[in-house]
Amino acid sequence: MPLTILLVDDEPLVRAGLRAVLEAQPDIEVVGEAADGAAVIPLVRRLRPDVVAMDVRMPLMDGIEATRAVLRTVPDPPKIVMVTTFENDECVYGALRAGADGFLLKRARPAEIVHAMRLVAEGDSLLFPAAVRQLAASYGEDHGNAEARTAMERAALTQREEEVLRLMTRGLSNAEIADRLVVGTETVKSHVSSVLAKLGARDRTQAVITAYESGFVSPG
User: Fold this and answer.
1) Separation of alpha carbons 115 and 52, rounded Å
2) Residues 170, 2, 77, CA angle at the centre, nearest 5°?
3) CA-CA distance, 207 to 217, in Å (whole number)?
4) pLDDT per residue as tens digits for the range 83-104
5) Cα separation of 72 and 210, whole Å?
6) I want to staple 137 with a disulfide (CB 3.0 to 4.6 A). Which of 38, 165, 210, 219 is the partner?
């Protein structure tokens, strides 16, 4: 089955460029387009894409609110990637905190765009971990640190789960974590699932943000 993607951006040229890059791959299919976040929910429900690639800033409903709406109202929601002009953007960090799985720069090379979509769909590694760390360093203190600390305290992670979370913040995949800890990949998957469940995190990105905002690891 191909990896299916919904494109959401108010600039037709951006959508056309992304479509051309993605549909050049035999295993990727762009199943739909929208010009604003307000159109995302009905399209997601009808098309059931694996990934939504969505602009952060749009005129009627921006990417942050659209992300919240999808995750709040759509059962088994797709992965969501923010598409942005600027890397160090507070709106991008807001979207990640709202539940987006990663972000992609509009100036990214075709190979980076394809890699990002596949990586997010697989869900076993963090997209651009250094950039997420930079965003946390820039904007993490402006958001709910007390809430993050409470979530971390309530999680009561085991020593091994803490080790896994630290390696997740560095962007290591499940296979890389398994190699580092000298355990099986399935064991790592089990630890990652436990970390996400205990933190109440939708995915690795939200778990990593909680790790930074709580002070469990330093983004510096």
Assistant:
1) 15
2) 60
3) 12
4) 998 777 788 888 998 999 999 9
5) 20
6) 219
